[in-house]
Amino acid sequence: MPLDQSRRKAMASIAGALALGPAHAECPDDPLAICNITHLNTVRVAQIRQVQDAQDVRAALRRWPGHLCVGGGRYSMGGQTAVDGGLQLDMRSMKQLVSLDPARRIARVQAGMRWRDLQAIVDPHGLAVRTMQSYSNFTVGGSVSVNCHGRYVGHGPVSASVRALQIVLPDGEIMEANRHNHADLFHAAIGGYGGAGVVTEVELDLDENFPLERKTAHVPLQDYPAWFAANIQAKPGVLLHNADLSAPGFDKPHCVTWVRSDKPLTVADRLTDPGASYATEKLFIWAMTELPGGTSLRRKVAMPLEDRTAVVWRNFEASLDAAQLEPWNRNRSTYVLQEYFVPARHFASYVRQLSRLMQQVDTGTLNISIRHASADPQVLMSWAREEVFCFVVYYKQQVNQRAQDFVGQWTRAMIDLSLKHEGTYYLPYQLHATQAQFDRAYPKAALFRNLRKQLGAARLTNMMWSRYAV
Q1: H or E segment at 62?
Q2: CB-side neighbour CA atoms (13 Å) of 210
Q3: CB of 46 closer than 8 Å to CB of 85
Q4: Coil, strand or helix: which one is 34?
Q5: Which end of the chain is more exposed for a tag (fewer CB within 10 A), N or C?
Q6: pLDDT tens digits, residue range 210-228?
């Protein structure tokens, strides 16, 4: 729930009323402790090696005798970028532009480049990233490895915009893979969490940059699929859309849509400021979760402000910073994500039961954002085997062990609810799923396992692949 400039001004009074100063809980001082954005599930590796290019990766693979893992922005929340006692290849120094063809709208980048850096490169050419997450902090290679998606309408996951990958195989061979050559490797590496090889370069389709106007609507929950089909899917010019369900009922969608526009800009900036503090946003989220009646603030303050007209550049809205969602500290609690994918044909039954579960169990959920994705059946570890609605759950949890155990319990209930509706859950988050749930959610995991054996990729692993015996 990012705040634009007009909303930030309106909420400044809340910030002024709260006499809080920022504090920061640090990850462990141990330089070999791989700490993710939540500060939960820290993993200690034996060595971290910063790599600059595919040759560095090849050398590391050939010299290191044990387990290896791949790390980027460290936004995955369950050890997907680390393995106990292994070597982590830190990709963040691999951030160079390899090539750019503005006329054909194609960019090729090293895998450690962040989306925000690519946006700064392509914006002067009137271009934009075609598909990415709602925030720009993530590395391109990491996004491909989890097969990310965003709020884009009709684009599907990022896999649809990936043209080719450079991949270093476990034996050190450097291979180019696309939909026509080495297609099996291409579709295993996308969404493969580093388990099929190390992605070192990504070639992407780009799009035109243009102004977007924000439009909002309040739609009855049972009417949402039909409204979405008629007003979002069928309308030209719609680029981004999500519907937010808020506490306590999670039953009244607030729909936010960004449509191509020729109207004057309300924000002149082409990209967001990468150095902003977002103090107001952090205080607002704190107030929502800590003050009496705080859950009503989103409905009473944020939503009316979202209903105001806003016209911004596409790149501005796509360059949002995840720092907006950061807590003041993580000494006692942290903010976490989960996500579930449910076939569009099961929407009505799923959301009724989801709302009931949210009201019966104190999950600490602030917001559930509904998105949409078209089918992505070719990717081996696909989370969208048919058209799906995506439910992004943003919640606050305590960091003590009792709280972590409780989160595991209701998470497994959420996974069961998704499986009951022929859906699945997203893998970049905490590893609360059982082996049986994982196997049901990802029926092609056995094929991925076999491909890993053929490639000799058993030592390319992380805590997730170790947890689920892949």
Answers
A1: helix 54-63
A2: 15
A3: yes
A4: strand
A5: C
A6: 999 999 999 999 999 999 9
Furthest C-alpha separation in the chain: 61
Q: What are the distances in angstroms from CA 469 to CA 114, 130, 466?
A: 30, 34, 5
Residue 14 has pLDDT above 70, yes or no: no
Tell me how far apart the alpha carbons of residues 73 and 148 are, in angstroms, rounded to a whole number.
Answer: 14
Helix, strand, coil percent content, the chain, rounded in steps of 5: 35, 25, 40
Domains, in order of start, for the chain: 210-440 (3.30.70.2520)
DSSP state of 460: B
138 contacts 73 by C-beta, under 8 angstroms = yes
pLDDT in tens, 311-350: 999 999 999 999 888 887 788 899 999 999 999 999 999 9
Provide the H-helix boundaries in 257-390. 279-290, 296-297, 303-306, 314-318, 347-360
Q: What tokens appear for 399 in the block?
A: 């960091």
pLDDT 10s digits, 402-425: 999 999 999 999 999 999 999 999
Q: What is the pLDDT of residue 16?
A: 36
Omega before 248 within 30 of 0, i.e. cis: yes
Beta bridge partners of 90: 50, 71
Angle, in degrees to the nearest 10, between helices 401-420 and 347-360: 160
Angle (nearest 5°) at CA 80 between 279 and 429: 55
Higher pLDDT, 248 or 216: 216
Look up the pTM and report it.
0.92
Q: Supply the pLDDT for residue 427.
A: 98
Rounded CA-CA distance 162/156 in Å is 12
* DSSP assigned state of 459: T
